[in-house]
Q: What sequence folds into this?
């Protein structure tokens, strides 16, 4: 169900039945490969103000296209929302090595677009990461990335003229939300996932953005564990954000 919301109305800056009535539960196989039934608690919107979007993130929700969702899987609590306060971050030894290793990579901010170059890189990434996947690169952009409910854009990484990575992000003055990151598998030795988060932290610091949402931390999924190495971070546990760890330099 789609609704139209006037952005920034104070009476909507709470999470109650006024919004909850639009959500439904959708059951599917686990998107992260766990042997569990996954339940998406989701709703489609036609527009959302930055404050309301921030309220959703504050409550552990994620964005997928024009859809806002959270995971409410009956027998699994593996998906734990994770966020950072960039001004508190201090890189550890390995993260400093990644920064040095990628000092030759140029970074650029650009509008979200389905360019041939982007589609070619995403298609290559999906074929390696998800060889049985049913969604094409075009479908990822049209269905998952492009959105009318957030100010979304891309951060692109280049080695000389070669595109080696693209981060899809939502932004406001109060938060930055990491939606998706894809990269050239041939550059895996550069630790591109770590490189990207380090750059997102730097972006937030330069623009005085106080919160960086990194999606889900899933301990059982190896490709999602690296997020916890960025310390200190906060995990949403039983409805409360809890500070976890200090950086060991």
A:
């Amino acid at each position: 169900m789609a609704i139209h919301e006037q952005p920034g109305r104070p009476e909507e800056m709470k999470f109650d039945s006024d919004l909850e009535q639009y959500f439904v539960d959708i059951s599917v196989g686990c998107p992260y490969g766990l042997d569990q039934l996954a339940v998406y608690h989701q709703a489609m919107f036609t527009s959302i103000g930055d404050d309301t979007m921030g309220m959703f993130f504050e409550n552990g929700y994620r964005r997928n296209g024009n859809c806002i969702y959270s995971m409410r899987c009956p027998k699994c609590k593996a998906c734990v929302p994770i966020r950072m306060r960039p001004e508190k971050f201090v890189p550890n030894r390995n993260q400093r090595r990644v920064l040095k290793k990628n000092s030759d990579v140029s970074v650029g901010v650009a509008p979200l677009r389905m360019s041939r170059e982007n589609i070619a890189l995403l298609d290559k990434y999906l074929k390696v990461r998800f060889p049985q996947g049913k969604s094409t690169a075009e479908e990822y952009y049209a269905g998952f990335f492009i959105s009318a409910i957030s100010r979304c854009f891309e951060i692109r990484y280049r080695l000389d003229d070669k595109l080696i990575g693209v981060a899809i992000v939502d932004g406001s003055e109060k938060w930055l939300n990491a939606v998706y990151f894809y990269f050239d598998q041939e550059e895996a030795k550069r630790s591109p996932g770590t490189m990207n988060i380090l750059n997102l932290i730097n972006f937030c610091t330069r623009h005085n953005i106080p919160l960086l949402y990194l999606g889900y931390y899933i301990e059982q999924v190896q490709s999602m564990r690296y997020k916890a190495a960025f310390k200190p971070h906060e995990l949403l546990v039983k409805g409360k954000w809890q500070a976890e760890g200090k950086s060991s330099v």
